[in-house]
Amino acid sequence: MHREHVELKKFKKVMLVFNPNSGRRLFVDTASRVNDIRNQLRELLGVQVLTEVSIYSFEEVRTIAQRICNEHYEWVIVAGGDGTLRAITEVFVENGKLPYMSVYPVGTVNLVAKELMLPADPDEWMKKVKRGMLTPVWLGQANNRVFLTVAGIGIDSLVIDKVTETEKKYLSKFAYVIEGTELVKRELLWQDWQYKFQVMINNDGIWRDAASVIVAKSRYYAGWFSLVDGASLSSAKLHVCLFHGVNKLDLLRYLGLLLTDSLATDKSVEILEAQSVEIRCNEENFAAELDGDSLVTSPLSISLLPEPVQFIA
């Protein structure tokens, strides 16, 4: 497939946005790696072209993203995880501005960088990005909130909703294992799964029953395993995964597969392609997750945005 490319040296305003709180890891000097990226970008583009900003809170993310829109930056490199990338992109969408973007993976989960095959090694990352090859990334929207990789409601979103920012910061993926164990005790020890979802695809008038739902926009979910064959950031499609099992053993199996990044091995999940999805729940305001953060609640109205973001990768 032919890919377009852009000449990086044509840019006059470029910003590197670094979230030092993203995905802190033992024995990995993230700040040093991002500093290496910054120095190589300065050498390539010129010191006057590159602006570097560090962010430490969600409020700062929105402020910096708004500045990017107001000051007409042409290329934005996000050194952070999927959550940081999602929050910045959402402000761009709100402002009707879609600059070229890149991501350097430093987060707890880096599904976008993984699918775009962007490595964590600074030299290898620069070597790949310097080619200027473009990949269109189609965005999903759930109740007017943007997502790049996945929207989920059910057993996974209930786990994510209970994990605090402090736990994510210091425990990384282990926080989800801990909360998953607590969910089993709380929701499944003495009873079957009590939540029910109904899903309509492409406004076809048919409500399909499910015990849990994942709407995939990316090839990957949670880890290295491919959740849906054919799903891709660069494809203008949603893939709706319906989990039908409602008894305790079914939900324990699904939860175990999610927590061990092995969901692709389960063939009992029904998967449907869609352009739009409506989801309702037997409990009002049930927490849903977008790109690994609890951001919206049921009922959900999910669709694709009409224009992709061009990633330099």
Q: Which blocks of ≥5 consecutive residues have pLDDT under 50?
A: 166-172, 174-178
Give the CATH class of the largest domain: Mainly Beta
Taken in chain order, the helices and strands follow as EHEHEHEHHEEEEHHHEEEEHEEEEEE
Q: Beta fraction of the residues?
A: 25-35%
What is the number of strand segments? 18
First-residue to last-residue Cα separation: 15 Å
**Overall mean confidence score, pLDDT:** 86
Count of individual domains? 2
**Biggest sheet overview:** 6 strands, antiparallel
Q: In summary, what is this structure?
A:
The protein is α+β, with helices and mostly antiparallel strands and 313 residues long. The chain folds into 2 domains: 8-132, Probable inorganic polyphosphate/atp-NAD kinase, domain 1 (Rossmann fold), CATH 3.40.50.10330; 145-305, Sandwich (Tumour Suppressor Smad4). The chain contains 9 helices and 18 strands.
Task: Provide structural commentary.
Helices cover 31% and strands 27% of the residues. The protein has nine helices and 18 strands. It is of the alpha+beta class and 313 residues long. It folds into two domains: 8-132, Rossmann fold (3-Layer(aba) Sandwich); 145-305, Tumour Suppressor Smad4 (Sandwich). It is elongated, with a radius of gyration of 20 Å. Strand 6 and strand 7 (145-147) form a beta hairpin. Residues 9-146 form the DAGKc domain.
Keywords summarizing the entry:
YegS/DAGK_C, Diacylglycerol kinase, ATP-NAD_kinase_N, 313 residues, transferase, Tumour Suppressor Smad4, alpha+beta, Rossmann fold
Secondary structure layout:
Blueprint: E1 14-18, H1 30-45, E2 50-54, H2 58-70, E3 75-80, H3 82-95, E4 100-105, H4 111-115, H5 122-129, E5 134-137, E6 140-142, E7 145-147, E8 150-153, H6 155-162, H7 165-171, H8 174-188, E9 197-201, E10 208-210, E11 212-216, E12 238-243, H9 248-259, E13 270-274, E14 276-281, E15 287-290, E16 293-297, E17 300-304, E18 309-312
Parallel strand pairs: 1-2, 1-3, 3-4
Antiparallel strand pairs: 5-18, 6-7, 6-17, 8-11, 8-15, 9-10, 9-14, 11-12, 12-13, 14-17, 15-16
